[in-house]
Amino acid sequence: QIRDLTFLIKNYCLTELYLNDNELTDISGALKHLCSLQILFLHNNELRKLGKTVKELKGMISLHTLNLFQNPLVHDPDYRLYVIYFLPSVQLLDRKLVTQRERESALHLYNPERSLLVQSIAFGKRVNAPLGIPVGSSRCTQPARRQTMPSGIYSSRRKNIVPFENPEDAVLVRAMTRSLSEFSAVDWNKVVTCQERQLHKKAELLEKLTVQFR
């Protein structure tokens, strides 16, 4: 039946705190000093204000396990994504692991500009596709398979655009808009020299390998 948390004001080194199954209605100003907290159970209380509750926990950079279920605030339609976005250190929320897809959805919902930037530029990623079709090589018997562009046109000028469901599609679009380069290689040991040309020596057919890539 705990309702007041002022008794915790001097417990700076707590790493685990179990306050579930009580009558807490507000935790504002009571827990923000617990920067070492790693596990916090607040389920089955009377917490109603999602924003104020999450704001109190923002300074807990070590918090990885959090329970808030069976509180009125969980009825907010964006409750889970809200907690995931504003408390990025949390890995286990209400007994469920936080997935990478949930983090991406939370980012798009609460920071759409950054979400579009990440998906359009795709930092550190590359297209999983062949470099191209070798030209003039007898060793290549089958053409390389090329990826097809995803449906729809991606444009940074469009507003309120929904990012690609598959990040690899965004990477592909980015790659396909870049310039095309070409690399060629030959076996110089088979190239006819000046002396051989003067002696009309018949040279072997020159094999040239050309690869296109972006």
UniProtKB/TrEMBL annotation:
<dbReference type="InterPro" id="IPR042655">
    <property type="entry name" value="LRC72"/>
</dbReference>
<dbReference type="InterPro" id="IPR001611">
    <property type="entry name" value="Leu-rich_rpt"/>
</dbReference>
<dbReference type="InterPro" id="IPR032675">
    <property type="entry name" value="LRR_dom_sf"/>
</dbReference>
<dbReference type="Pfam" id="PF14580">
    <property type="entry name" value="LRR_9"/>
</dbReference>
<protein>
    <submittedName>
        <fullName>LRC72 protein</fullName>
    </submittedName>
</protein>
